[in-house]
């Protein structure tokens, strides 16, 4: 069978040996899962899942697929016919959508995919996109919220920011996007006046600024305007405390990194793959 797979809205032909590898895989067959993104040096997902598989005696392996362009997802799929699911991280949570055959309603609403379920039926493969970021984000930030947290600034406009946007709305918080580039309905960092900083007491970083190995970087917000009324949340979890969090903490703000969000969305991913 031709190994050059064209992924469109139709089902994807699978290799002949792949006919044995479906969602009803027996325990004797090793399951394969992975992470799609670039770069992946910062990610803990591989360690988390492989430790889970060992601890729970699950015959599976989780590997990183570090691809420098989204088109290489086709090669990943063809060369790994035992794949049962993928997580998707920066910078492909939006770019991967055209490769989906189906979309979960939540992922469609958000406009970003971070979980792909492989569905094999009658020798055909379908990819279904989901979003578990919203679950991880809302469940991890909810315990830190109080009555003063009515409005939130979302730093960044990528795929993760979309899940955070809908997550804040679901928690009764009015979101506002912030970007380096001026766009309609989006503030720039230069727009962050003392009045806005006082009004928006929840600030979430969805950019890669400060992520390992570039730990000396941080979003250019006016940190001197932060107070003990602010909640500052960084989706980054490597390092444990980013420069963004460190500067906010010095102003008295409550801070939290994205490790719990990672774990919660990982648990949700596993549930999605095994529904």
Helical proportion, percent range = 25-40%
Distance between the termini: 30 Å
Backbone structural class = alpha/beta
- Under CATH, the topology of the largest domain can be stated as Rossmann fold
Average predicted local confidence, pLDDT: 90
Q: Please summarize the sheet with the most strands.
A: 7 strands, mixed
> Can you write the helix and strand succession as a string?
EEHEHEEHEEHEHEEHEEHEH
Beta-strand content bin: 15-25%
Number of individual domains: 2
Unreliable stretches: 1-27
Helix count from the secondary structure assignment: 8
Short characterization:
The chain is α/β, with parallel strands linked by helices. It has helices at 45-55, 73-79, 105-110, 133-141, 159-170, 194-199, 243-250, 259-273, and strands spanning 12-13, 31-37, 60-66, 83-88, 102-103, 115-121, 124-130, 151-155, 174-179, 187-188, 202-205, 231-234, 254-256.
Key traits:
single chain, 275 residues, alpha/beta, Rossmann fold, 2 domains, seven-stranded mixed beta sheet, six-stranded parallel beta sheet, 8 helices, 13 strands, 27% helix, 23% strand, elongated, disordered N terminus
Can you characterise this structure?
The chain is 27% helix and 23% strand. It is α/β, with parallel strands linked by helices. Helix 4 crosses helix 5 and helix 4 packs across helix 8 (259-273). It folds into two domains: 12-131, Rossmann fold; 134-261, Rossmann fold. Strand 6 (115-121) and strand 7 form a beta hairpin. Strands 1, 2, 3, 4, 5, 6 and 7 form a seven-stranded mixed beta sheet that branches. It has a six-stranded parallel beta sheet with strand order 10-9-8-11-12-13. The protein has helices at residues 45-55, 73-79, 105-110, 133-141, 159-170, 194-199, 243-250, 259-273, and strands at 12-13, 31-37, 60-66, 83-88, 102-103, 115-121, 124-130, 151-155, 174-179, 187-188, 202-205, 231-234, 254-256. It is elongated.
